[in-house]
Design brief:
The chain has helices at about 5-20, 40-50, 65-70, 85-90, 100-120, 130-155, 180-195, 210-230, 240-255, 265-270, 270-275, 300-305, 340-345, 350-355, 405-415, 420-430, 445-455, 465-470, 475-480, 495-500, and strands spanning about 75-80, 285, 315, 325-330, 335-340, 360, 360-365, 370, 380, 400-405. It is mainly alpha-helical and about 500 residues long. Among the domains are: about 1-195 and about 475-508, Serine Threonine Protein Phosphatase 5, Tetratricopeptide repeat (Alpha Horseshoe), CATH 1.25.40.390; about 300-395, no CATH class. Strands 1-5 form a two-stranded antiparallel ribbon. Strands 2-10 form a two-stranded antiparallel ribbon. β7 (about 360-365) and β8 (about 370) form a beta hairpin. The longest helix has 26 residues, at about 130-155.
Length: about 500
């Protein structure tokens, strides 16, 4: 078992150590008493693992993140009894009292508090090899940047918390400008790039390549938001400069490392037993879990959100493109996420990302083939989040945060219609069984085509909402093309009311 998974047990010990001296009855974001911890190199590693342990929690990448980033798009709707908070998101009429937004907000700030503890305290731990110290601190910077990038894309202006939270008096913090938040994100990732090794890290931990990949996504968000006139990004001086930086950092990922690369067979991208043991993986950074864990958050139940419950245990072919493929048992789920007809019908008929990665028929225990219609209660579903070796509801389903294919498309979009950019997107289209992208497109048309390609390639991975927001396309796509309505939360969600009530420096 790898160190990030094995370290979950250490994280629980660290949690009790961190919280035992808290001056508050509740832990709003993770109050830390550094005087009782961070004394040894083992403490430093345990503190880092504690920082990572927030990612696969139910309220973050094992469930809550997908509720908030997928339901507002044309990809998914929720089952009829999902609850008010889900439907506020799905129907884009969010309010400050939305419990799903409140929950994710809290988890992201807890993650920031834990990362701040690593960044502040590990430099002072005695008798640590410099390489180990730098790696851990660099990973702390990476994690803080990731949380802040999620926050600013979801909520816009938010409080910046850059010091360990040790006193209740530190809780009131005013909102920072979006530009200031991005300055911190970029600075943190550059520090992470400088301090971390480029060697492949333990599963679920970042390395230099992860920092470079996330930087490319940050710069692309700034570039396209400025170029499209998206709300809140007037501060970006020049979109071309940002596109060039996105291209430079994506180029580092594509050209300057050998630990991450393209996976040729689509189902293999999502087979944890394949990619967790591969020498070269498409998964640059995941929120990692393991089915041997003791509680949800150590393992994942995320697949159940996507899987239907037709009343029986389902089996499917592992790789529909391979006539000799094996059949795998995928169990049954909760039918919570239901695929929208808008998304299902938008694929080209020969696109393997539909034929191989979206399941429209299953085999029941009697050996009969059961068809799912897109308007049925049990609908076609993505097979991205499937663990064929699931242990009841305990699954080793990592949540992808950054994939190599994502960065190939970042590279293409940032470059515009160059020979290299066409080669990058056509590599992805070829794997999907499609012909090359239309040649000789204008820069604007090419970039629009890349965003559409991302909609297919990265479906259900939490990217679509941000792609629509940064390209100023929420109304154009969701309202004009797909007939949805938007009442609130188009480009930024409202800050949770609980934060407003407890933080007097925040103005609604």
């Amino acid at each position: 078992m790898n160190k990030i998974i094995a370290g979950i047990c250490l994280a629980s010990i660290a949690s009790s150590t961190f919280l035992s001296c808290s001056k508050l009855t509740e832990e709003p974001y993770g109050i830390v008493n550094s005087n009782s911890f961070y004394k040894t190199a083992d403490d430093a590693l345990s503190g880092l693992i504690y920082a990572y342990a927030i990612l696969p929690e139910v309220g973050y990448y094992s469930r809550g993140y997908y509720i908030i980033t997928e339901l507002p798009t044309e990809n998914l709707t929720a089952k009829s009894d999902a609850g008010q908070a889900n439907f506020e998101l799905e129907q884009l009429r969010t309010t400050s009292t939305n419990s799903d937004l409140d929950n994710l907000w809290t988890y992201m700030y807890r993650g920031i508090a834990r990362a701040n503890a690593v960044i502040t305290n590990v430099p002072n731990v005695p008798n640590m090899p410099d390489a180990d110290r730098n790696q851990i601190i660099g990973e702390g910077y990476f994690l803080r940047a990731l949380h802040n990038f999620n926050l600013v894309r979801l909520f816009g202006e938010v409080p910046l918390r850059l010091e360990p939270l040790v006193e209740a008096e530190q809780i009131p913090v005013a909102k920072s400008n979006i530009s200031d938040i991005y300055d911190v994100i970029i600075a943190d990732l550059k520090k992470g790039e400088e301090l971390m090794s480029a060697a492949k890290n333990f599963e679920g931990r970042a390395n230099r390549v992860a920092a470079q990949a996330l930087l490319s996504k940050v710069y692309l968000h700034l570039a396209s938001a400025k170029a499209s006139g998206s709300v809140g990004y007037d501060f970006v001086a020049n979109s071309d400069d940002m596109y060039n930086e996105a291209l430079r950092y994506a180029g580092k990922v594509i050209n300057d490392q050998q630990v991450f690369n393209f996976t040729d067979v689509l189902p293999d991208i999502w087979n944890t037993e394949v990619y967790k043991n591969a020498a070269v993986s498409e998964h640059i950074f995941d929120a990692a879990v393991d089915r041997s864990g003791e509680r949800e958050g150590n393992y994942s139940k995320l697949p159940n959100m996507f899987l239907p419950d037709p009343g029986f245990v389902m089996t499917i072919p592992y790789n529909p493109s391979d006539p000799n493929t094996e059949t795998i048992n995928i169990g049954r789920g909760w039918n919570h996420f239901q695929m929208e007809a808008h998304h299902y019908n938008s694929y080209h008929a020969s696109d393997k990302r539909k034929t191989d990665l979206i399941v429209s028929e299953v085999i029941n225990p009697d050996g009969n083939v059961i068809q799912f219609g897109i308007n049925d209660f049990s609908r076609p579903f993505t097979r991205k989040f499937i663990d064929p070796l699931r242990d009841a509801d305990k699954m080793s389903t990592n949540s992808p945060v950054i994939r190599y294919s994502d960065i190939l498309l970042v590279y293409a979009e940032a470059a515009g219609p160059t020979t290299e950019a066409y080669a990058a997107v056509n590599k992805i289209r070829n794997r999907a069984g499609l012909g090359p992208l239309t040649p000789n497109l204008s820069p604007a048309a090419f970039r629009e085509a890349i965003v559409e390609e991302r909609a297919f390639e990265l479906a259900f991975e939490g990217n679509r909402l941000f792609d629509l927001r940064r390209t100023n396309s929420m109304e154009k796509v969701l309202v004009e093309k797909y007939g949805k309505s938007i009442t609130s939360g188009a480009y930024f969600f409202p800050i949770p009311q609980r934060e407003i009530d407890s933080n007097p420096l925040i103005q609604p």
